[in-house]
Each structure stands twice: as C-alpha cells, then as structure tokens.
Design a protein that fits this description.
By secondary structure, this protein is an alpha+beta fold. The protein has one domain: Yope Regulator, Chain: A, CATH 3.30.1460.10. It contains three helices and six strands; from the N terminus they run αββββαββα. It has a six-stranded antiparallel sheet with strand order 1-2-3-4-6-5, covered by helices on one side. Strand 3 and strand 4 form a beta hairpin. The longest helix has 28 residues. The radius of gyration is 16 Å and the shape is elongated. It starts with 9 loop residues before the first helix and ends with a helix.
C-alpha cells in the first residue's frame, strides 16, 4: 500500500480504496461526487466519503430523529456524550425530506491512505457502538 501523503480527490480515493488489497474489508461505489464505502467487517455498514475544500469528510447515517420520543433531550444528551465517541462528531442531516442522526469524521486531504482507512474503520466502529449503546443509555438516564 502506498502510504505517502498526497492531495486526494474523489477519483483518486475511489481508485485507492477500490484496489484489490482492500476488497475483503470494504467495497467502493462512486455516486456523483461521493463515495459509498461498504464496510464488510462492520456488518456491511455504509459510510459516505466526500472531499470538501481542504478536508475529507466521512459519515454514516444512524437512525431517524423522529424515532426519538424526546429529540431535544436526546440532542442535549448527545452533546454531553460526545467526548465518549473518539474521533467522531454527531450531526443531524436531511435525506429525502427526513432528518437523521449522523456520525461524521474529518481528515485533511493530505492524509495518508493508511490514515483514511483508520478513519473509515473508527467511524464504522463508532456508528455501530452509537446505534447499540447511546440510545439505550439515554433511555436508561
């Protein structure tokens, strides 16, 4: 694996991540200016990757905001719990007119491929943990 830093574009990322050496761990599909990375080692979780300005943004949708009985209280809880989710941030994003909780990580466009792969793995792991643990922790609080 070429681990030298470079300035990444969506095309270069698609090529590097789609290389055969990563095929057991992930698969990559380009959808316009975004990559959909399916993380096979994380239950085929979809992680989306884009390049915006000087950064690479990776994200995964968690669950619809409407599923929370008290979204305002849960949002407050998330802000307090944020420090428990390393290298990732929570957001709310709209998809097809519906709001979803989303987990996001950011990297420099000059990051090494190794660092990008680590971010994809960490975000996938954190998304699964958030889906399994945070909702239940909030319900118990």
């Amino acid at each position: 694996m070429d681990d030298t830093a470079r300035v990444w574009t969506i095309g270069r990322l698609a090529e590097a991540l789609g290389a055969g050496e990563h095929s057991a761990e992930l698969s990559v599909e380009r959808v316009g200016d975004v990559l959909r990375v399916t993380m096979h080692d994380h239950g085929d979780l979809a992680v989306f990757l884009s390049v915006a300005g000087e950064q690479i943004v990776v994200s995964s949708l968690l669950w619809p905001v409407a599923e929370m009985d008290d979204a305002a209280a849960f949002n407050h809880f998330l802000l307090k719990a944020q420090k428990l989710v390393p290298l990732s941030n929570f957001a709310i994003t709209e998809v097809d007119g519906r709001e979803y909780y989303e987990l996001i990580g950011e990297l420099s466009i000059e990051s090494t491929l190794r660092t990008i792969l680590i971010e994809l793995r960490v975000l996938a792991h954190n998304a699964l943990d958030a889906a399994a643990d945070l909702r239940h922790a909030f319900a118990a609080a």
